[in-house]
Write a structure and sequence with these properties.
With 132 residues, the chain is mainly alpha-helical. It has eight helices and no strands. The protein folds into two domains: 71 residues; 55 residues, no CATH class. Helices cover 67% and strands 0% of the residues.
Length: 132
């Protein structure tokens, strides 16, 4: 137990001196903790999860290959980030000028944007309910 505590303190010193943990994304914190777990600096998944500042179950799931919800949903996303940005920007401009769009209008606009990339693609009427 004493050796594990020393390793954990060593880990805290390394991560605190090299980076500001609050600004690191979860995937980077996970990778650093995984590297230390794999190299034996941290001997338990619980210790690695604590170092990565994530629940033990999250660390364990990532360790065994499960994707994060964010990564999983990227493959299911209808509009990419740039297209979503255009949609939000256009809706915002119309709303600011006194012409807010209805749900039906936003869905139609999303379909128009999507068809620029893929002429065969369609947007279901329930798309907006699942997206926002």
């Amino acid at each position: 137990m004493r050796g594990q505590r020393a390793s954990f303190l060593h880990l805290q010193h390394i991560t605190m001196s090299n980076t500001n943990e609050e600004t690191l994304p979860e995937c980077v914190r996970f990778q650093e903790a995984l590297d230390m777990y794999s190299s034996g600096i941290i001997s338990t998944q619980t210790g690695a999860a604590t170092a990565a500042e994530m629940p033990r179950s999250t660390f364990s799931h990532r360790f065994h290959g499960r994707r994060s919800a964010e990564d999983y949903n990227k493959g299911r996303q209808l509009l990419n980030n740039a297209e979503e940005g255009i949609l939000v920007w256009y809706c915002d401009i119309l709303q600011r000028t006194g012409f807010p769009l209805s749900v039906k209008d936003v869905t139609a606009l999303a379909g128009k944007i999507l068809r620029k990339r893929d002429p065969e693609a369609t947007v279901s009427p329930q798309w907006i309910e699942h997206s926002f």
